[in-house]
Amino acid sequence: MASLATYPHEVIRARLQDQRSAPMPAGAGAPAPAGPRYRGIVDCARTVFREEGLRGLYSGFSANLARALPATAIMFFVYESVLRAVQGSGVLGPAAAAGASDVG
User: Fold this and answer.
1) Contacts of 59 (CB under 8 A, 6+ apart)
2) What is the pLDDT of residues 42-101, one digit of tens each?
3) Nearest to residue 56, comparing CAs of 47, 65, 46, 48?
4) CB 3.0-4.6 Å disulfide test: which of 15, 17, 68, 92 passes with 96?
5) DSSP code of residue 93
6) How far apart (Å, rounded) are the C-alpha atoms in residues 75 and 68?
7) Which of helix, strand or coil describes residue 92?
8) Rounded-to-integer distance, Cα 37 and Cα 16, Å
């Protein structure tokens, strides 16, 4: 759910970074660059929305989910496994282990 709410920020950030790193034309006869396409965050969001609609602000979202979901699942699995191992070994002590089990 958080990814759905914050993904347009990722699109805007990527577009602003792409325009900053665009290669300059080579040679003396090359046309002069027209300047940056976007003047800032708000201008970028407006331009993308105007030209591509809401779909433009979520372009690449499925690829992002394909990357983020497995990483999140692995992180939670490792966290839970380490928590159980530490609680079972008595490293935390009885009072700390009881408190840690209330967290999850």
Assistant:
1) 11, 52
2) 999 999 999 999 999 999 999 999 999 999 999 999 999 999 999 887 776 655 555 555
3) 48
4) 92
5) -
6) 10
7) coil
8) 9
In angstroms, how far is CA 14 from the centroid of its own chain?
10
CB neighbour list of residue 33: distance below 8 Å, 6 or more residues apart = 22, 24, 25
Q: What secondary structure does DSSP assign to 12-68, as a single string?
A: HHHHHHHHHTPPPPPSTTSPPP---S-SSHHHHHHHHHHHH-HHHHTTTHHHHHHHH
pTM of the model: 0.62
Tokens representing 84? 């159980």
- The answer on pLDDT for 6 being more than 80 is yes
**Cβ-count burial of 11 within 10 angstroms (0-12 exposed, 13-18 middle, 19+ buried)?**
buried
Tokens 């602000």 — which residue? Answer: 57
The token pair at 59 is 């372009």
Residue spans of the domains in the chain: they are 1-26+34-59, 65-104
